[in-house]
Amino acid sequence: MLRFCALAATLLAATPAMARDLVVEAGPNAQERLQSALLDAKPGDTVRIGAGRFELTDGLSLDVNGVTVRGAGADRTVLSFKGQLGAGEGLLVTSDDVVLRDFAVEDSKGDGIKSKGADRIVYKNVRVEWTGGPKASNGAYGVYPVESEDVLIDGVTVKGASDAGIYVGQSNRIVVRNSTAMYNVAGIEIENSGHAEVTNNLATHNTGGILVFDLPALPRRGAGFVTVSGNRAIDNDTPNFAPKGNTVASVPTGTGVLIMAENDVTVRDNELSGNGTANIMVVAYRQPFEDKGYDPYPRNIHLAGNRHGRAGFAPAMPGGAELAKALGGTLPPIFWDGTGGDKVKLTGADAEPMLTLGLALGAGIETAKPQLVRLASGGPAPWPAVKLPAAMEAAAK
User: Fold this and answer.
1) Rounded to an integer, what distance in angstroms lies between the CA atom of residue 276 and that of residue 316?
2) What are 65-111's pLDDT values in tens digits?
3) pLDDT grade for 61, boundaries at 50, 70 and 90
4) 12 exposed, middle or buried (CB, 10 Å; 0-12, 13-18, 19+)?
5) Cα separation of 145 and 162, whole Å?
6) What proportion of the chain, given as a percentage, has pLDDT over 90?
7) Which of 1, 41, 63, 321 lies 20 to 30 Å (CA to CA) from residue 147?
8) Chain-centroid distance, C-alpha 313
9) What are the residue ranges of helices labelled H in the chain?
């Protein structure tokens, strides 16, 4: 009987009815009060951050499973890290089943919000911004989930990241939707990940709008099966301000969608225009690498139903200006470095012509053999849509 009572007490303690609201209002000692609430939270609790501006001097952290952090709105609850003394993240999450919603992070010295190894994480109606505009000294990433299973990013806005505004790396089952990325180096980036859907987003005034990368020498390689659909990647025209040595420092200004070395990627039904280098670029990874298991070629890339506007009028890649001059002043909206030849399997139904350079891996632009070609017909076998747990979808309503 005693054993049964103890079990019943444990189950009752874990029920949603026992969940608490830990309310933190703006005002003096905001740093201590907010971090204390994050430390005191138990699974099922909500840390409610009131409206107002919270002037913070250090990063915040959460390592408790099943906690919701909720503000009064992305323009009403502002966590300002302008006075941050360290160089870390604004908020670091290392626990599972966390919901982050309805608040803003501004001017963090490092990344805005980073979650590492945090499975089933939801970012909803969050804003991350560096208010001084694009600068190399800004934090690298705005919203930064990495090494996670099941990621939902919905209604997020990021401005001013010196690497990627919305970045998901080394993760699986990802949905990025209804979000806005502006004035970042990379607007939205899916890197070394698999089974991702990037849908109904706006990527504008970045260096590059939407990037899908697979890079060597990382703990996890990309699994592919990435769909980029229904987005607007328009007017990506911000000069590249990434610190030297960063991978994205080589992204040409004016890139709409860039696929590098990833496999099984579909880019369809997007609005692509105003991108001075190209609306779509498909390239191999061209830097030296020692990762013997790494494949530097993109494979099974399908482009269909995209609406192409003006593009290629200010190509920023090496040799781009000369190529444009030879082709009458502009480049076609679709660009392929040609590396890998037939093994790449680049197909689609986009009507626009494609420029291919026929470059060998490691060869310089001076060896290019430019040709205007049409996409081959066909496409990859369809793959299942990303299905996230119902609880995540419910938390994002």
Assistant:
1) 8
2) 999 999 999 999 999 999 999 889 999 999 999 999 999 999 999 99
3) very high
4) exposed
5) 16
6) 89
7) 41
8) 26
9) 2-13, 30-40, 320-326, 390-395
Question: What tokens does 222 get?
Answer: 């990309």
The string of pLDDT tens digits covering residues 168-197 is: 999 999 999 999 999 999 999 999 999 999
Q: Are 172 and 149 in contact (CB under 8 A)?
A: yes
Helix (H) or strand (E) holding 256: strand 255-260
Strands 263-268 and 180-182: unpaired
Q: Is 76 exposed, middle or buried (0-12, 13-18, 19+ CB in 10 A)?
A: middle
Please tell me the distance from the alpha carbon of residue 69 to that of residue 50, in angstroms, as a whole number: 11
Under a CB-based contact definition with an 8 Å cutoff, are residues 333 and 280 in contact?
yes
| Residue 7: pLDDT over 90 | no
Cα separation, 46 vs 70, whole angstroms: 7
Provide the mean pLDDT of the chain. Answer: 94
- Burial (CB count within 10 angstroms: exposed 0-12, middle 13-18, buried 19+), residue 72: middle
The residue written with tokens 């290019």 in the block is: 368
CA–CA separation, 59 vs 320, rounded Å?
Answer: 43
CB-CB contact of 248 with 287 (8 Å): no
Tokens of 43: 């699974």
Dihedral, CA atoms, 342, 344, 349, 350, nearest 10 degrees?
-110
Q: What's the pLDDT score for residue 272?
A: 98
Structure tokens at 287: 């830097």
User: What is d(CA 377, CA 215) in angstroms, rounded to the nearest whole number?
Assistant: 28
Q: How far is CA 71 from the centre of its chain?
A: 22
Q: Render pLDDT for 250-263 as a digit per residue (tens, 0 to 9).
A: 999 999 999 999 99
Quote the CA–CA distance of 228 and 212 in Å, as a whole number: 9
- Alpha-carbon gap, residue 389 to 150, rounded angstroms: 8
